[in-house]
Amino acid sequence: RNRQLVKLRGEDSVTLDGEAVELFANIALPDDLPEARKAGAAGVGLFRTEFLFLNREDLPSEEEQVEAYQKVIRGMRGRMTTIRTADIGGDKMLSRESLALLADSDFEEANPALGLRALRFCFAFRPLFITQLRALMRAATAGSVRLLLPMVSSSSDVHEVRACIEEAAAQLEAEGLRYRKNIPLGGMIELPAAVAGLSDLLPLLDFFSLGTNDLVQYTLAADRTNAYVSRYCDDCHPAVMRFIAESIRRVTAAGKEISVCGEMAGRPEMTPFFIGLGCSALSMDPAHIPTIKERIRALSAEDCEIFARGVLRRRSAESVREALADFNDSLK
Ligand code: PEP
Ligand code: MG
């Protein structure tokens, strides 16, 4: 079995009827790179940079960040690296010591998942964000890079990010440092507001990525880390399936690229649904890449399209699960 998967590394990720689906890797630290390369990833679809900021008592300096980002970019040898700006907050909060370097008083939130997280945290502690953007623009001279914004909730978020990018660029310019400014900018679709507001976001961003983990959490108002409500965190809920479908259809119709980067992307029973919607890129833990590639090579995109249409007519999570199971059984 293992030899079979190693052999798959050199094979194309393409359906029986010729639709290509690129498989990218999700990584947290530069150390995850060898695994991504071994799995034959087409690139990095999600570099969760907040992990550079966690489990320490200080903050990563600009130089440390430049080095970490360049290591990943160079390591991908020309393949695209999608770097997400820090998604700090929620269940990924800085240590008390690191926070004390940013905030004057003790920082406490009753409801962190709905609090200062991701872009909101970065805007609240702007010097931290500017430092990261400077590091990213400096590192981007090393190869193929694009930036991805977490928890985009409105067009204002994007405008505020662009203002921060301008500020960082002006500083680098004045200091005579080498940097790249025109880096493609994408947004995570992980809030219901991003799905409903797609027509406002589409003209402002170059590409999109579906963060299904948070899309499930925020659509169903169920904390993804709270075991008491885990049965409500159900990625087969019809509302979630319809949000995913709407996002993929609208972004694709606008001629822009959309990938799926939440855990759902690495679940083989979901693969026919994504292919049926016309999604041509999935990003996942590298460990799942061979299994998903094997699944894609056994599917017909035409059958998947009919299947996805049927899934979207289901009226309960149980019924969606049944449809997924039936289709998967039919492949055996
Ligand atoms: C997601 O929300 O699906 C996602 C990919 O981001 P994270 O899991 O890091 O929140
Ligand atoms: Mg997320």
What small molecules accompany the polymer chains? Answer: phosphoenolpyruvate, magnesium ion
Based on DSSP secondary structure assignment, what is the total number of beta strands?
Answer: 8
Gap between N and C termini: 17 Å
Number of helices: 15
Order the strands across the largest sheet as they lie in space: 7-6-5-4-3-2-1-8
Assembly classification: single chain
Q: Tell me the radius of gyration.
A: 20 Å
Order of helices and strands: HEHEHEHHHEHEHHEHHEHEHHH
SS content category: alpha/beta
Main location: cytoplasm
Protein name: Phosphoenolpyruvate-protein phosphotransferase
Keywords: Cytoplasm, Kinase, Magnesium, Metal-binding, Phosphotransferase system, Sugar transport, Transferase, Transport
EC number: 2.7.3.9
Fold topology:
Elements: H1 2-8, E1 22-27, H2 33-38, E2 44-48, H3 62-75, E3 81-84, H4 96-100, H5 119-124, H6 126-139, E4 145-149, H7 155-175, E5 185-189, H8 192-196, H9 198-201, E6 207-210, H10 212-219, H11 238-253, E7 257-260, H12 271-276, E8 281-284, H13 289-297, H14 301-311, H15 317-330
Parallel strand pairs: 1-2, 1-8, 2-3, 3-4, 4-5, 5-6, 6-7
Helix pairs in contact: 3-6, 6-7
This protein binds phosphoenolpyruvate (PEP) and magnesium ion.
